[in-house]
């Protein structure tokens, strides 16, 4: 075997390439590059973690007032995700009612929705009050009076209502505004019984009520004590409305102007006919002027009244000159008029003799 290689053997060989040895990187540069890479990594991790730190934890709210039929996540929990705040969790109490929800149940409901833990702040439960519009007695009575006036012509100022049972209250949602109305009204004038359905909106909230219609009567009531003979002024009275059956038949709404008390009247007393009268213009035993007046004739004389008299009253007077008693009519303070006796007097009698 020849010790030499022919040309075919040379063709199968791969030439050996000699490369220069690699230069080593300086240690200081390696350290700088590694530090920069670490900082970039930390910055990237921080960019992911910062939003998580910025989100405040969800916390249980305190006692709440519900305005709707359901309680949402946003009603019960603070810092809830915006997209999940409207998620319904529990049914609210009935209108005007109150209830409680265990904190554990709220936390379980939130966790079940995949929204994470809820801090309870040590609370074991929260109280829930359902808000409601309350239509109470005065509004209900006003609705019935309007209906009674419209249908039966009753004056709402002169009727009162005594509703059956405890004071009725109609509960309605807060957004159901407007005036209460009385529907399906029934009234019996003989028994004075009334019933109706008090409603808000299109019968969205309604309450059936029944009761008794009480007729009222206006009376004058004394606001101060008045002594006998004292003038009763308008300022001494107030007009009150009382049940007709409790008012005396002879009660009056107001006395005539200028009348005086005929007896002592107590404060708060209902004024009755006869309690006041026009003042006496002539007193018994008073010296008065007797007056006779006719066309072309005017006579006067002094006399003493035997009795007291008001304007228009007939009194007897003793003529001071003749001591005769004559009858006359009180026409003013200490003035008594006398005149022709009547048709039986002779036509020739021109004037009476004041004797």
Polypeptide structure, described:
- This protein is α+β, with helices and mostly antiparallel strands.
- The chain has 4 domains: 73 residues, Sandwich (eubacterium ventriosum atcc fold); 82 residues, no CATH class; 59 residues, Alpha-Beta Complex (Type Iii Antifreeze Protein Isoform Hplc 12), CATH 3.90.1210; 58 residues, Roll (SH3 type barrels).
- Helix content is 18%, strand content 34%.
- The chain is built from 5 helices and 23 strands.
- Strands 9, 11, 12, 13 and 14 form a 5-stranded antiparallel β-sheet that branches. It has a 5-stranded mixed β-barrel with strand order 18-19-21-22-23.
- The radius of gyration is 53 Å and the shape is elongated.
- The N terminus and C terminus are likely disordered.
């Amino acid at each position: 075997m020849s010790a030499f290689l022919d040309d075919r053997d040379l063709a199968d060989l791969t030439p050996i390439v000699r490369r220069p040895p690699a230069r080593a990187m300086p240690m200081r540069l390696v350290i700088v590059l590694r530090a920069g890479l670490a900082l970039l990594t930390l910055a990237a991790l921080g960019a992911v973690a910062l939003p998580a730190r910025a989100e405040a934890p969800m916390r249980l709210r305190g006692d709440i007032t519900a305005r709707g039929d359901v309680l949402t996540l946003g009603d019960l929990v603070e810092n809830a995700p915006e997209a999940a705040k409207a998620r319904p969790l529990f049914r609210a109490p009935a209108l005007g009612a109150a209830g409680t929800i265990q904190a554990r149940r709220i936390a379980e409901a939130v966790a079940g929705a995949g929204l994470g833990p809820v801090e309870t702040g040590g609370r074991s439960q929260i109280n829930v009050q359902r808000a409601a519009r309350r239509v109470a007695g005065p509004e209900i009575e006003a609705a019935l009076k309007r209906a009674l006036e419209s249908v039966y012509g009753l004056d709402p100022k002169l009727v009162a209502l005594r509703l059956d049972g405890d004071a009725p209250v109609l509960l309605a949602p807060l957004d159901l505004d407007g005036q209460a109305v009385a529907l399906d009204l029934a009234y019996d004038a003989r028994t004075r019984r009334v019933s109706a359905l008090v409603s808000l909106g299109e019968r969205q909230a309604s309450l059936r009520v029944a009761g008794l219609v009480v007729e009222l009567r206006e009376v004058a009531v004394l606001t101060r004590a008045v002594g006998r003979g004292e003038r009763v002024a308008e300022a001494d009275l107030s007009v009150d409305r009382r049940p007709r059956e409790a008012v005396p038949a002879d009660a009056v709404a107001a006395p005539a102007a200028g009348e005086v008390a005929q007896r002592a009247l107590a404060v708060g007393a209902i004024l009755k006919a006869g309690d006041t009268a026009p003042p006496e213009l002539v007193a018994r035993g008073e010296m008065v002027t007797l007056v006779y007046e006719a066309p072309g004739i005017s006579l006067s004389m002094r006399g003493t009244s035997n009795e007291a008299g008001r304007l228009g009253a007939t009194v007897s007077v003793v003529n001071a000159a003749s001591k005769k008693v004559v009858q006359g009519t009180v026409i003013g303070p200490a003035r008594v008029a006398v005149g022709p006796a009547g048709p039986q007097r002779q036509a020739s009698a021109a004037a009476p003799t004041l004797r």
